Amino acid sequence: MQTIRLNSTGPDVELLQQLLCKWGYTVNGTGVFDAETDAAVRKFQRDGRLDADGIVGKRTWDLLQNEDARALSSYRINDADYERAAGLLGVEVAAVKAVLEVETGNKGGFLAPGHPTILFEGHIFWSQLKERGIDPEKYQKGNEDILYPKWDKSHYKGGMKEYDRLEKARAIHHEAADSSASWGLAQIMGFNYKACGCKNVSEFVNEMTENEGKQLDLFVRFLQGNKWDKYLRTLDWKEFARHYNGPSYAQNQYDTKLENAYKKYK
Length: 266
What we know:
- The chain is mainly α.
- It has helices at 11-22, 35-47, 58-65, 67-72, 79-89, 93-104, 122-131, 161-170, 174-179, 201-210, 212-226, 229-233, 237-245, 254-265, and strands at 110-112, 115-116, 118-120, 181-183, 188-189.
- A three-stranded antiparallel β-sheet has the order 3-4-5. A two-stranded antiparallel ribbon has the order 1-2.
- Residues 92-266 form the N-acetylmuramidase domain.
């Protein structure tokens, strides 16, 4: 579906109006995205815990058409959650939104109920096993897609298929596996559980699995624990990117993406 907003016209607007009526938001099926439709969209977005900006993009279309997306709506954060997090960090709401958008796009912190958005990193699993006195080479045969000494994005599967990789790793060592995935809205690596105020990685994963509000709390504690919130306060995107994304941040223009996302929300 196309992204549509106030003053858009055409068949996508007609479909939007039909779907809004289906979910009990009464609008006239004119095919014109008028003020009445805009108000209904914003109410639908608020009720679904999306940003109530009146712009019908991927997440709003998903929520309108997809039962799974509607089931996830109770997990989502809203504008009040962003404001609370920004207040705790002493930063602008736009800065918080920028980081989360760059980390997970508009997909959000959950793939399905009970399944936070994750990305499993096989090179981290390699090092996590070694930290526990386990020789990863003994387990590498048959596990080449989850266990390798250097970063290799070719093994990423994306979406729920990342859970196939995680479960395969958990069969080798559960704690090391959970420590080797990035989790939730802010894609925090599991081995950072202490910086997030958790006593172990199991507690970290349990909190990540509750809802996006918990994920946002972990993000706040993660920044505070590392004292990286100061870079968001001063909008120092390069230093924030260097610390949050690593020294190779410039290769994927992480700082530029953050700044552009901030400007959009600002």
